[in-house]
């Protein structure tokens, strides 16, 4: 072969020996990094704070010595006087091998990351595990598509028409299934962003209930009345969602009215009595109590406090106890609660008759 004769003529035996040593050194270095680098990262992954160590260890183990052999040959050929055609062939082979190896690394990284997340999702949110699997599959398809296009481009293939065809086909498919894709991406947003999870009690507009399932297209919620409410994922994310499971404490505001006949000295003491009624209950934090306004038939007091528990039954138990404490205190102090009343004043006219 002509290129082989040119190669042998342009280089000395010592040059070939140096090239062989460099190629072997690079290949052995890659093999050592693959073997011991994975072990080091796996050992580091045993620490509690090392969340990504195991993923990176699996990614390093995905290094292929066969794919990186062209890299070693390229390093060895750098000390030789190589013909232009052979140099171009070695360079293209090296670039394609690096692209394939990069795709393999990313493929294993996505797979191991998805496997970790899948185990967590299967225990906490079984429905979200399906969406996570679809996300990992889609990411792998995108990665290998990019690797294929870049490899073809390096091999001087005209990928313009291919990219254009893929773009037009993708647009056509997206238009045909845009509603399904919208719900699918909304499902992924729910799984990743977690505005709510299975078991959360939420309010959507005027509907309220507990999340039972987050699917690829729909989310199912069990209402307080027992019926099953089904929401499209895309429509659900467009709504204003109130998640009561994320509530740390519950703010309570209510009013109490007393009659206008209540003496002024007792009116001044009522805010203190209200404060004592709230603070006597466990898991509460008092905020304020004020004589708010003169009502139509009552002198109104406004009370604000916090229940340090998100459970609704706990809140109702505390509010009931507060109401009873206020009622008992007002009874002891002889303060009457007001209720809507109307007083009529009748004027009697005296008829004067002429004698």
Q: Major sheet, described briefly?
A: 5 strands, antiparallel
Number of strands: 8
Helix content: 55-70%
Shape field: elongated
Q: What Rg is obtained from the alpha carbons, in whole angstroms?
A: 38 Å
SS strand fraction: 15-25%
What's the end-to-end separation, in Å?
A: 156 Å
Question: Number of folding domains?
Answer: 3
Describe the structure concisely for a colleague.
With 355 residues, the protein is α+β, with helices and mostly antiparallel strands. It has 11 helices and 8 strands.
Describe the structure in your own words.
The protein is α+β, with helices and mostly antiparallel strands. It folds into three domains: 2-176, no CATH class; 187-246, Roll (SH3 type barrels); 250-332, Alpha-Beta Plaits (2-Layer Sandwich), CATH 3.30.70.100. It contains eleven helices and eight strands. It has helices at 2-10, 13-45, 53-61, 69-77, 84-124, 126-154, 160-176, 178-193, 233-238, 264-279, 312-332; strands at residues 201-204, 207-214, 218-223, 228-232, 241-243, 250-258, 284-294, 299-307. The strands form two sheets. A five-stranded antiparallel β-sheet has the order 4-3-2-1-5. A three-stranded antiparallel β-sheet has the order 6-8-7. Helix 6 crosses helix 8. It is elongated, with a radius of gyration of 38 Å. The relative contact order is 0.06. The mean pLDDT is 78.
